[in-house]
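Hi Y.,

Following your request, here is the sequence exactly as I used it, all 577 residues.
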Amino acid sequence: MSYLVLARKYRPKTFDEVVGQEGIVRILCNAIRLDRVAHAYLFCGARGVGKTTVARLLAKSLNCTGTATPTPDPDNECPSCVEIGKGVSPDVFEIDGASSTGVDDVRQLRDNIQYLPARGRFKIYIIDEVHMLSVNAFNALLKTLEEPPRHAKFIFATTEAHKIPLTVLSRCQRLDFKRIPSDVIFQKLKGILASENMLIEDDGLRAIAREAAGGMRDALSLTDQVLSYGGSDISCAQVFEALGLTSSTLYEEVLGAVLSNRPDELMQQVERLFEEGHDLKRFLEGLLMHVRHLILFRSLKLDPGLLVDVLAEERDRLKALAAQADAVRWHQIFDVLSQALQELARSAAPRLAIETALLRVAAIDTFASLDELILRVEQLGQKAPSTAPLQPGFGTSGVRSAPPPYRPTPPPAPAPAAPRQECVEVPAKALPLCACPDSPPPEGLPVDWPKLVALVGKKRPSLAVLLTHACPRQVDPGKVHITLEPGSFYAEQLKGSNNIKDMERFCTEFFGQPTSFTLEERTDSGGVNLAKSAARVEQETEKLMQTNALAHPMVKEAIRIFSAEVEQIQPGKGEPS
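Below is the corresponding structure, written out as tokens. Let me know if you'd prefer a different format.
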């Protein structure tokens, strides 16, 4: 007698044996008991979750001759149940949608459906992979599907429900089969192995359950493969070797080498995988899933144990590894590896794609946040020597008094042709101060607005940069109201709930009493703001420097002697500020 694989040998024979689909089983059983069985069902779900099995069980329940009426508990002994179990029933037609896609196949079905069943109560048509039918075939089936004969039932099964026309979906009761949890698969496999007098270590059995990805048929097929490899008593290591899986320890070693930037070790790991014959695409998918686990452990405040299907000792190692880098770094690694996985499918040399991806992700630095970059710039400004020329936004002490407004760099104007051009320096004291809280506010701005922005700049520099582009309408104790252009980048950033709360806190601190902060988006919000004032001051400064330079006796003499023109004006490096 030929060997019968576990997936067929242990296929459920009753609804009670179906695992992981309790909701669907309850719907069908109650429909049978209450005589409310629909004329058409659509079973949707991933592969190996029980769609075809449940369709056969429903056919058995409807045509079981061991009872006078349909029953949710078929006896599996009557001729009808036996024939359906063997797939030879004259009243149950299992059709492969992939090989019966044309209008002629549907026309033949319509002609045959009019005849009464041979022995059972119903003629039942089970069409697997129904999404493979052509559009014309679906259209030809619509009328029969909407008003079939009383003795006909349709059961459609598909893994791609989105390909089914809406006109067909509206004529069926749709039941979505969910993926079976790995713990449920683990328990089911343990029971089957006990019946087979076989033993697989629990860790190996859990690895099989995880690899099945929610499909019971896949789990049983993998178990068959492992049993053929290792005999009756199989260790976890044998399971990994039989299925070509990569252990989590190797993933941890690779990621550890990435974090510490050890390229030699990374190349040795890839060489080891290549020599042992591992599927590199499968390895990269597993590595991505491992990084996903690390992101969850690093980002979530609660224990992500329910979202990470790993062993207890692996969970402890994941926590320790996740703590070695911040969440931004793990996201960075995930993005690079994800891009490498996409390139792997198109690459003629998968090994090279993985090697370059690992070397790249080990070499790049962690991204810094905007606030951190601004803080670094401020610290550099504080350490600068006092003889350095002051830029707009700095006080006389050289310490930043308010964040600089954003100004796009204007395109350089074409220089006029001249026989000789010189670069002339003027004293730095010609530069005026701008946006300094101790100096008079620019014309058209409330007196307290620059001081308030300066205070915010000390607390949250990035927020202060946004405020320099806002037009203050009211800046008084108790209420601060600003306007911005609707839909602008600055308005979208300031509207965040955290920014509004922080501004109310800063305003309250500034005025010494509770102060509300409101932001209004107005198309006519164009008015005076710190950014425009700074730009105007800069223009005036440049004009003043040019005037002073051209009026300087030495400059005049140089122009006369060399027949030169002034191209660029710079503040004097040695002049006091």
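The chain has 24 helices and twelve strands.

Thanks again,
Q.
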